Amino acid sequence: MIIILDPGATPEQRDSLTTDLKARGYGVHLSEGVERTIVGVIGTPDRDKSYLVEQFEALPFVERVVPILKPYKLVGRAFKPEGTVINVNGVKIGGGNVCVMAGPCTVESPEMLFETADFVKANGAHILRGGAFKPSTSPYSFHGMGEAGLQLLAEARDRTGLAIITEVMDTRDVELVGKYTDIYQIGTRNMTNYSLLREVGNARKPVMLKRGWASTIEEWLQAAEYIASQGNYEIILCERGIRTFENYTRNTFDINAIPAIKELSHLPIFADPSHATGKRSLVSAVSLGAVAAGADGLILETHPNPEKALKDGPQSLSFQQFGDLIRDLKPIAAAVGKTL
Ligand code: PEP
Ligand code: MN
After folding, report:
1. What separation in angstroms does the CA of 29 have from each of 40, 42, 98, 180, 206?
2. Closest residue (by CA) to atom 10 of ligand 1?
3. Would you put residue 241 in left (φ > 0), alpha (ψ -120 to 50) or beta?
């Protein structure tokens, strides 16, 4: 359940309440909004709920107590009605901003990474993406440069000032990846890797959680809840396409997920039209659609020479396409009241 404090509640009243809740054995999570504080209480047995609602509502500094029946609580809209805004090295994710993350699927060499970083930085990207630990359906494909790739990403950040995002696939690598990255990416194949979710939940760095390719919206929000339940509320959701019977495209972009997540959760929602379509000719149109539907940002694979990319070349934008897309996105963002 959540306890919504009165706007006039003092820090001492809030602390006495949280001490009391913890003494009863409940998990306590605070959401400090501009107007009021909301206290998320985890672990209240169903049979006690109505009695607890009455008891806490009687406190003079409590405005309202709401039992939450959904299987996700901390990532639900009610816990932070105004929406989460995450600040990554000065870049705001969520709120009225459209944030663009761009870069290669995989870090291949210093030359290609720096060339891409310089270009996307000069052409409107806010964050640099690049894989160092790559998941692959085939055990025989390229699995990334590992720590050497992380070092190159950090160098690209020093060079351009762009924050970086990269995938972590294994609980054993969370610490190592965290030494370099600004945002952890959890890929589609690991959305239900609950020990990994817990591990990044214990880290104090933002996490982008991609939707599992066969997961429902509710399962995805419960995966996000794993991260939040460890005390890390800086989560970005990313719709990257789901598997359907359609095989002209690599996946099917579920545009419904964008407004649905906005309704159900306070977390920022991104779109990944690269993996959703698998085809560079479709990426721009789907990007425009995602932003029009309310996405808080995009993650776009971009490569100096897509034909020669070691991974995901067919869905990687050329520099020309990336520049044109940013130009076309600006009026769409403005039309939905956002800035890019
Ligand atoms: C990626 O971003 O390169 C990637 C592997 O994405 P996904 O997990 O969505 O397939
Ligand atoms: Mn990729």
Report:
1. 5, 8, 28, 28, 17
2. 188
3. left
Verdict on whether the full-model pTM lies above 0.85: yes
- In tens, the pLDDT along 266-293 reads 999 999 999 999 999 999 999 999 999 9
Helix (H) or strand (E) holding 239: strand 235-239
CA separation for the pair 112, 153 (Å, rounded) = 11
| Ligand lying closest to the C-alpha of residue 215 | 1
Partners of residue 129 on adjacent β-strands: 165
What pLDDT score was predicted for residue 34?
87
Q: Do the bridges between strand 91-93 and strand 99-103 make them parallel or antiparallel, or are there none, so unpaired?
A: unpaired
Q: What is the pLDDT of residue 136?
A: 86
Please give the pLDDT value at position 46: 86
- Probe ligand 1: pick from 167, 209, 300, max atoms within 8 Å of CB? 167
Question: Measured on CA atoms in the order 34, 36, 37, 41, is the torsion positive or negative?
Answer: negative
- Both structure tokens of 131: 């894989």
Query: All domains of the chain, ordered by start, with CATH?
Result: 2-69 (3.30.70.1140), 86-335 (3.20.20.70)
Quote the CA–CA distance of 337 and 297 in Å, as a whole number. Answer: 14
Q: Which residues contact 104 (CB under 8 A, 6 or more apart)?
A: 112, 113, 116, 129, 130, 131, 301, 302, 303, 309, 316
Minimal-distance CA residue to ligand 1 atom 3: 105
Query: Cα 269 from chain centroid?
Result: 6
